[in-house]
From TrEMBL:
Keywords carried by this UniProt record: Signal
Taxonomic lineage of the native organism: Bacteria, Pseudomonadati, Bacteroidota, Bacteroidia, Bacteroidales
Signal peptide: 1-19
Species: Bacteroides oleiciplenus
Positions of the Alginate export domain: 29-354
InterPro entries listed in its UniProt record: Alginate_export_dom, Alginate_Permeability_Chnl
Gene3D superfamilies: 2.40.160.100
Protein's name according to its UniProt entry: Alginate export domain-containing protein
Length: 424
């Protein structure tokens, strides 16, 4: 009798396994991205001098992403090859193929989770932590993220500790150049109410910056703290957001820091076709004579999104040790010609935040135009053109010659289909 019972149980096992899998809690998807962008640079990133010839190139991102999901586990691997057309030889044995994402997320139930590995850190409007998707390579962090989420609240704790290699002895000196920080601890909280069209976030970030001696590998870590809030209001007509952040501690030069930034943006939707927007961003600067370093560092945000498309500020450095900060005033308009075509026109006026001896604050004006066309499903064509008219102060703090014509144009195709999706 016992033998018959066990035989029947063994016969039932396959059907029991099949019954469990028919719930289809497992998902697997795969997507491919090819994104070439042709650029004409005649003063992008840094102003050009009189007589300097413009540059031109085509860069490309080729990315393969795979993602697995079930109720208690999520994993993603995304590998990419980035570079400029013609950069690699036709016969290349040492291709540049890297992981830009490789993480696992463990869901423990009741809203608790842990996500560990290489991942993008994208928070709020991306002023402090952003994915930097405009850049051909994007931005990633190697980190552990612990979190909790429910209907109204999200809380994340992010921890990172970076080293150059698997060291045996010799301390923990970190040669910057890979990740810009040695360690990081970040706490982020977001609240969304049930009814009111408001949202609020709080951020605290503690960065450990290596200031030791590279020759002797003597480790001396300084700590920089950034803290602040991001607030939003949105209804059918208005979309308003504002942010304030303060920095203290010490920077990588072991200098005491006391700096801040504030931003305010308001967009009004006139109708389905037209939207107007106005914004102001103020990032404090240093005049070089302060006892504390007063230039705010927006760290790992998506700077291209805010401070002009030509990337003169924070996406590229000031010259000769200047750190005058930035006061950016913007007026813009968006026009949706159809469901598939939209365009933006933005005007920026830039000035320094700090008063530099013998110089006026005005840096110049920039005009940015961009058009986007959804050619077909998963295929978007975008193009843009920008001009910058600088001042003598721009020449001093950024280089170049403000009397030279500064412009920049680009065309990009983004092909990004999901080629596989299965559930079982």
């Amino acid at each position: 009798m016992k033998t018959t019972y066990w035989a029947m149980l063994l016969m039932l096992l396959p059907s029991m396994a099949y019954t469990q899998t028919t719930e289809k809690e497992n998902e697997f998807s795969m997507s491919i991205q090819i994104r070439p962008r042709a650029e004409y640079r005649n003063g992008a990133l840094v102003p050009r001098n009189e007589g300097e010839e413009p540059a031109g190139f085509i860069n490309n991102r080729a990315r393969l992403s795979m993602e697995y999901k079930r109720s208690d586990l999520q994993m993603k691997i995304s590998a990419q090859h980035v570079g400029v057309w013609g950069q690699d030889p036709q016969i290349d044995k040492n291709g540049r193929f890297i992981m830009n994402e490789a993480w696992a997320k463990l869901n423990f139930g009741e809203g608790f989770f842990a996500q560990l590995g290489r991942q993008s850190l994208v928070y709020d409007d991306e002023r402090i932590l952003g994915g930097l998707d405009w850049n051909i390579a994007g931005r990633y962090h190697d980190a552990l993220k612990l979190g909790y989420a429910n209907k109204n609240n999200q809380l994340h704790l992010i921890l990172a500790f970076n080293q150059n290699d698997e060291t045996k002895i010799g301390g923990t000196y970190y040669q910057a150049g890979a990740q810009p920080y040695k360690n990081m601890q970040t706490l982020w909280y977001h609240y969304t109410p049930d009814q009111a069209p408001f949202g609020a976030s709080l951020l605290f970030m503690n960065l450990g910056l290596e200031t030791g001696d590279a020759a002797t590998k003597t480790s001396h870590t300084r700590y920089l703290q950034t803290m602040g809030t991001y607030l939003t209001y949105k209804n059918s007509d208005w979309n308003v957001d504002g942010a304030f952040y303060y920095q203290t501690g010490k920077n990588q030069k072991a200098v005491k820091v006391s700096a801040f930034m504030a931003s305010l943006q308001a967009a009004y939707t006139i109708d389905k076709t037209w939207t107007v927007v106005a914004s102001a961003d103020y990032l404090s600067g240093s005049n070089g004579s302060d006892d504390k370093y007063k230039a705010f560092n927006p760290l790992y945000g998506t700077h291209h999104k805010f401070y002009g498309a030509m990337d003169y500020f924070y996406a590229s450095d000031f010259v000769d040790g200047y750190a005058p900060g930035l006061f950016d005033k913007r007026l813009g308009v968006r026009f949706c010609a159809s469901d598939k075509v939209d365009m933006d026109l933005n005007y920026h006026h830039f000035s320094t935040a700090a008063k530099l001896s013998g110089l006026k604050k005005a840096l110049g004006s920039e005009m940015d135009y961009q058009i986007n066309w959804s050619v077909m499903k998963d295929v978007k064509l975008s193009a843009g053109y920008s001009i910058m008219r600088g001042t003598e102060t721009m020449d001093i703090v950024k280089g170049g010659n403000h009397k030279s014509w500064q412009d920049w144009g680009w065309v990009s195709v983004n092909i990004n289909p999901r080629v596989l999706f299965v559930k079982w």
